[in-house]
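Model it.
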Amino acid sequence: QASTSGTAVITVTVMDADGPRTRMFNLQVASIASNDPPTLDVIANVTRPENTTSIPITLSGISAGPNESQNLTITVTSDQPTKIPSFGTIMSYVQGTSTASFDLSPVASAFGDANITVRVTDDTLIGGNPATFFERTFKVTLTPVNDAPTLNSGSASILENSDTGTAVATLDFQ
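Modeled.
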């Protein structure tokens, strides 16, 4: 079993032409320190309408790994930073706690999908093993909304001496 140590009694029986021979001996088993990866629970996908200004995310199940107590760093990145910018390091995480939270801030008028990756990294070298990390990715879907059209100011004129009174205008619809 991983991360365990202790003593075991091992019995070995050997059979040859003279019959069976049995020998019992103690075997001391000690685990060699290893750096288990941190833990993080699954993060649910999120759907919000376009122009949502803030999306709160709560993380749970955060730990340094079994029987470990290292300091952790949590970072958040987006594969679509033009829709949802990468968050960077979560500065509000309290070491030793199993939860953290942060708010994603979508770009105004952005819609579509973005994959958000949360990485938990430990900071300790254990038994010659380097620091380890664990990642979870979840999807944020920003659904488009039917924005009302807008009309930017423009200019309009009527040609002098025009028989039809036709207006000539430059309009900029958005």
